[in-house]
Amino acid sequence: MIRLLLFAATRFLVGGHPRWQGSEPAARQRIYFANHGSHLDTVLLWSALPPDLRETTHPVAAADYWGKNALSRFVSTHVLNAVLLQRRPKKGEDPLQPLRAILDRGESLIIFPEGTRGDELLPGSFKGGLHHLARDYPRAELIPVYLENLSRAWPKGTLIPVPISCSVRFGPPLPFTPDEPKPAFLDRAREAVVALA
Amino acid sequence: MDPRFLWLFAGVGGILLIASVIGAILSRTVKSESGRETVRNLNERVRAWWVMVAIFGIAFVFGKVVTLVLFALTSFYCLREFISLTPTRPADHCALAIAFYIFLPLQYYLIGIDWLALFSIAIPVYAFLLLPVAAAVRGETVNFLMRTAKIQWALMLTVYCISHAPALLILNIPGYEGQNFLLLFFLVTVVQLSDVLQYVFGKLFGRHKVAPRVSPAKTWEGLIGGGLSATAVGAGLWWITPFTPIEAAGMAAAIVIAGFCGGIVLSAVKRSLGAKDWGTMIEGHGGALDRMDSVSFAAPLFFHLCNYFFAA
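Structure tokens for the assembled complex are given below, as produced in the milestone run.
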């Protein structure tokens, strides 16, 4: 119910039409990685997936923001099926542990490798988490996603989104080779998202 | 309910039914590649037409408030399309929020409470002065005039101009009380019929383009043939208006010409923003603004002609 309302409001404001350019919706294990421009990114990308894939696809959300109070924790984990990530982990703790738990179950993830929302149309540099996951879970397909216009609809530091049509573009799977150096891989991953812009 | 509504909707429904039947026959008989493309386009237009007529039927049956809500939603989608194609900056966010969340609802609310004087100046005066202030306090001066002008244009075309169509409902025309819906019907019918007939005449006889770089589909043959036939239909509808047949023909001609101008101006705006269609909302019709471009020019003109010559 809440989910339907949230989807309807998002559709009304920003549209969010999915465009599959180079990959198709499929039930196999995937890691979707996208540029991050607004708080609507998670809702929009997740609602752009076909309903049957949503159940097994978990957006990764920052625990310091989405886990702040009971309401946002409820919305993120129950409505959006999200998994919370500690952006500043305690010493000796693996921050990716909750993500690995999902992947170990054979389910899929949505991650925003920039780690924070950007102001520009193109994504900033990617953090290393994507590389660790790609290395440890070679069976998961890496799907680049570009969220168009979202940083314009709800820029960082503003209270409410304005209605601007956005689209969600899914690109072709990104190949992973274990011997490629980490920075080169992260650059290539970023390029794959930029190529969809 | 006025029995003339039923007759009119039965008439429109009949015409669409004929169009659907012709479309179905053509899609079986036409074999050439380009012909099939045209027929497919035609059938999609007819289908979208059914939806629009259904929406109008609902508006007419349920009255002024529902009509205002439907037109407000139309303005909303048109404004969203316009702004989506405009490269706004984060510094414009506040101005955009004011345009969407304050001026758009306000404009239709003012029609709802019959406040004609403020309705006429809310956007040209108050939004014109307020929106640049909202953008200026953010301190970004790069392309400031261009950004402000685009937002003001968007608001004028998609909200101010389009809102003049439902504003016909609050005109006080002596001897025509309670029938203003028919005036709105007259406007929308003539505008949309003129669009369709110009397209059909252009496809059949089109040789000389009016403005090839702006709008390649618009031809003199289409304009004259479609415009004259739409004017004739408008004159034939004089009995639903407060006009004599001659006046109805003049009004229809004004609507046709304004609608044509709206088509080429919005096409030029669209191209200067680097797009072919405004959006993908209506199947076969591009975006919502692709259907409303002629209305946005015809509605204010028709409103003011009615107000000046016929209203008390």
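Chain B touches chain A through 16 residues (CB under 8 Å). Chain B is about 75% helix and 0% strand. Further analysis is deferred to the final report.
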